[in-house]
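pipeline: protein-struct stage 2 | run 1193 | Lipoprotein
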Amino acid sequence: MKNLFLLLTAMIIFGGCSYKNESLMLSQYDAQYTGELSKDKKSVFIESIEDMRVDKRSLGYVLEGDKKAHELYSTEDFTKKYKDAFEIALRMAGFENSAQQSGAELVMNINIKKIEFIYNNKNLDKNLKGVIELEVTIKKGTSTITQDFKQAASKWIAPSYSSKDIEPFLNEIFSQSVNSVVTRLTKY
């Protein structure tokens, strides 16, 4: 009985202190656009959004010392999340979402090139770093413009024992990446 009690106590202590790695969820983009507004209400058609990352589930890792201790992952469909977010942000910026390419003044193609978050439990200042890279191609009449957007940030979070602690930062950088593309689009 005494051995059983010691075994249970040890399991609670060691099990409770281990890192809990769960799938990261991305909240819906809700009315977060605060950038510039389109002056002429151009119509925009989102032709495609493609996730170009090799591993679509991977979002980065947790460093313990100098080694990767845990992979950060998500089962979210980032192409769908980006499509929904861009439709909302474009509307908020004064654009009209076009249902067909033929009637649109601007045609967008978006490639998700990189989504990476690194949590380092040994850093005392900025222990969480994140980056999202998008490649956006805009067609306006016969001209085509391709531009890369990189949204990077770092911050300190309280010591983390769960991948869920990273979700607010993921949502923040996701929203910023959408906002920077739409703000740039207002200049075309």
